[in-house]
Amino acid sequence: MNRENETDIGKAAESPGLPPFRFSELLEKKVILQDWGEYEDFFRFSSNVGKIDEGSVLVKVGNGFELIQGFPKIKRAIMLAPALKNHFKDIYSVAVEEKMNGYNVRVIEHKGELVAFTRSGHVCPYSSERSEHLLEHDFFKDYPEYVVYGEMVGPDNPYVPKDIYGVESLDFFVFDIRSREGIPLPLHERRELASDYGFTQVELLGEFELGEAADRIREIITELGKKEHEGVIIKDPSMILQPVKYTTSQTNCADLRHGFRFYNESGKDYLFARVVREGFQSVEWNESEEEIKDRCLRLGESILRPMRESILRVQEGERIRDDVRIRVKDESTIDRFRMYLERLGLDVIFSPPERIGDEYVVNIRKMNRSTTDKTLGIIEGQLWS
Predict the structure, then answer these.
(1) What is the C-alpha separation between 367 and 187, in angstroms, rounded?
(2) Radius of gyration, CA atoms only, the chain
(3) Structural domains of the chain sorted by starting position, each given as residue range(s) with its CATH number in brackets
(4) Which of 11, 40, 102, 353 has its CA 20 to 30 A from that of 158?
(5) pTM of the model
């Protein structure tokens, strides 16, 4: 190793508090991974290292490095009332914001451009370009020490396309602003600051005394479920205690519909957890026999129907796929995003870009090879092992 590399490693290790030899070891073991192409200034953590969360990113700045902490892990309430009573027992009230169904990114400014990191710490070229046009750059000039956390939501979403929020293309809904060390702004301070810069934010659905919170949140969840929205994040307004999430039955079933459509790619823990949530919610809500039947039908259909449709498609000679689309202003983003997805190991087919106004729309077909191959093998007589 040359002297320059030794110096870089030493400086990089200073930021997360790792000895240089430990940093070098993590690089060698690919626990710390350098991004590629134009993003070589960024190094992501592929797993937890001490107090550094998976998805955290080291950013090369001048002659040194800065650490940007990963997404905070938000635990889930399964039985709502006892979970709230236990987790928030030391505070008077909780604030409830909508949990939107999209994908999370963290945004910073680097060398005059906005850069969006995924939950795993990758730089997503598409999310970065969209952030450039959706977020006010003055914020990052005025507050370079802050990281903006948000949900990318809308139909032009290559990961979780949803057409239920009245978003025409794609929008960025801010749900957190934190220091690079991961310390959050208090909720009301964050909402006021985000409003000052014209940021779109997740909706604040109310602030409730702890004793009434479970009943009020159940009312909110019922209404969100009717619109097939995802759920809520329950927060300590001061943001000292960690938030808690709680989701609707409809989003649990939507996840299952997608998961069983691609049953051989979906993790068993992912699928099983959503069934368990339905059981506990049904009990806590003390459902009538008619309500239980409705939930059973909704749950059963979300498991069996999409899987049956996938089997029929393969029987007819089709490959199982996910069709999504993106909308960009800079045509070069299309090739960069294709390379990004291929580097992640995805089998994708991009349509020729269609010019609409001052933007380009591209349809993307994500091929799910594993489910297709497994289904075809079973149809041809393969035994389940």
Answers:
(1) 41
(2) 22
(3) 3-68 (3.10.450), 249-315 (1.20.58.2250)
(4) 40
(5) 0.93
